[in-house]
Design brief:
The protein is an all-alpha fold and about 280 residues long. It contains 12 helices and no strands. It has one domain (about 50-250). The chain has helices at about 5-25, 40-70, 75-80, 85-110, 110-120, 135-145, 150-155, 160-175, 185-190, 195, 215-220, 245-250. The longest helix has about 35 residues, at about 40-70.
Amino acid sequence: MFSMQEIFSLVTTFFAVWLVMLPLESLFTARKQPIFRENWLTDLAFFLGQSLLWGSLTVFCLTLFSQGADLVVPAGFREAVAKQPWWLQALEVVLLGDLLIYWGHRMAHRYEILWRFHKIHHTAEHLDWLAAFREHPLDGVYTRLIVNLPAIVFGFSLHTIAGLIVLRGLWGIFIHSNVRLEVGPIKYLLGSPELHHWHHDRDRNAHYNFANLMPLMDLIFGTYYEPHREPEAYGIEESIPQNYFVQMLYPFLPRSTFSKATEPTAPKDDALPPTEHP
């Protein structure tokens, strides 16, 4: 059972984020849709699942991984890292984390064993701040281990790593939001909804905007895409029920469970679009 303190914290967090995002999505709407749009309750279930259940799984895995790294990473290496200025350490962790998760993300789109979990995130047919929480817990563990690997190797404390997860998570909420807001050059540093929405384009023939935080990686590796308009539709072609419990189980089920007419193999990223940017 969950304590009253945990429930109070959960409710407070939900409404705090909602009170920030609701005005943004109302004033700078990217696509007209109701606040309580279709499948809103499914995404709420993902939010509750992450907050009450799966967040603990992530912390457990990160702790185990950190303890393992303590045994294999030379103390001399960590001492050398610790002697660097804090700002340089932070820059190294962010850049290396973004590089690793960029390729980890592309692998999740390319290889079936990873795609079967990651595609749950892409089943969202409506994007807003709540859709950011639509994520299979095993995909979440995979993502957070990879993106925090440099911080773990460098010997950062779990409290610091938790802070990085929170910061990346807040920006992740924003880039999924139903917002079209010109943020200027900052989009090249932190990304923006107008860029990330194209990563959720229903057209799976080409892939773009894989970067977790900074679009720099997409610019470097030729997957940056900015056509200055919204996609026609979000989601994937494969027919997957919009039900939280089904989506939790779906990656473990035979491919033909719900539809024999769809081809749920991982989409390939070898037909990338031309890079488009101002």
